[in-house]
# Entry
Amino acid sequence: MKAAVYKGPHNIKVEDVPEPRVSGRKVLMKFKAGSICGTDMHLYRGEWKIKRGRIIGHDACGVRADTGEKVVMIPLTFCGKCYFCLRGFPSFCERVRFYGLTRNGFFAESIALRAKNLVPVPENVSDEEAAIVEPVALALHTLNSLKPNVGDWATIIGQGPIGLLMTQVAKLKGCQVIAIDLEDYRLELAEKYGATVCINARKEDAAKRVMEITGRGSDVVVEAAGTERTVEQTPFMVRKAGKVALVGEFKGYLNLEDADGAVFFTTYISPVEYPMAVELIAKKIVDVKGLITHRFRLADFEKALQTADNAAEKPVKIVITA
Ligand SMILES: [Zn+2]
Ligand SMILES: [Zn+2]
# Structure
């Protein structure tokens, strides 16, 4: 079968690999569609390293070979019994394994995984929509942790796929959203998704503008740009006793002299919100279709990565189909 195999930085190739073995409680899945995410790009650019020969990909939908049912695949396994699992933090399971990082991932024609990792997808959700569930689940997890009140200012730094979904979910929570990015084409999407104010940080001092707009600082801040610089800006955007969620990239030093009483926490993928993410997409409460800028077949995976790495192509979400 064909699969996208990590061979090193800037060296991820579609190759023939053996079919996965199906044993015990595992189910064989036929790949339908998946999407490229920031994690895949960290690997491509050599910023993160995994074992050579590993199949990448962790956001995808497929069809069960046994029942023909369409499902989304949850990309991590957890034991359910350890200290963190028992306290409701399966992402920090002492035996956690991530598909596409520490296990073979989903950009492969066939995938074997346990039935408990499968979330059924209703008929009205297209394959390409079902390929973009992970960032929706992450946005739900993050905003559910921030617990903003109706009318609160939510500042979302970075309007890539994750930031744009944070913007959508913050709107659903009743927030007034300040969307920040460096690219106007992404801010236009943020505006379409209901952002109250859009700030291009290339043209304006983002932290100063947030203070001007809110008067006292943003009630909640989500850092979804993933740079040290934007992480370090967050204490200068949040109001006193506000809350800041740092998504995915946690490097940087926080100067807290103006952030009295503010709470800072890191957040990443959690399996708990996957079923709700699918439900919100199916009911058209959250939109993922509008994020798709490019589509490639699995055979052209290298071209897809090059496109994702080329800002001139204005990529937002790139979908891979079988
Ligand atoms: Zn991801
Ligand atoms: Zn565990």
